[in-house]
Amino acid sequence: MAFSPQIGLLVVAVCWGVSFPLIRVALQSVSAPKFVFVRFALAGLAFLFVLFLPKIRREIWRILLPGLGIGFLNYFIFTSQTLAMETISGPRAAFITGSYVVFVPMLCRAFGRPSPSRMDWVSVVFAFVGLSILANPFYSEESVAMRTGDLFAVFCSLCVAVKIHTLTRLAVSGAGAVATAFLQVWGVVLLYALTYPVLPATWFSGEWTGIALVCVASCAWGISVGTFYLQSICQRAVSPHQSALIYSLEPVFATIFSFLMIGEQLTASGFVGAAFILTAQILPYSLRKLPVTAHT
Question: Mean pLDDT in the chain?
Answer without folding.
Answer: 85
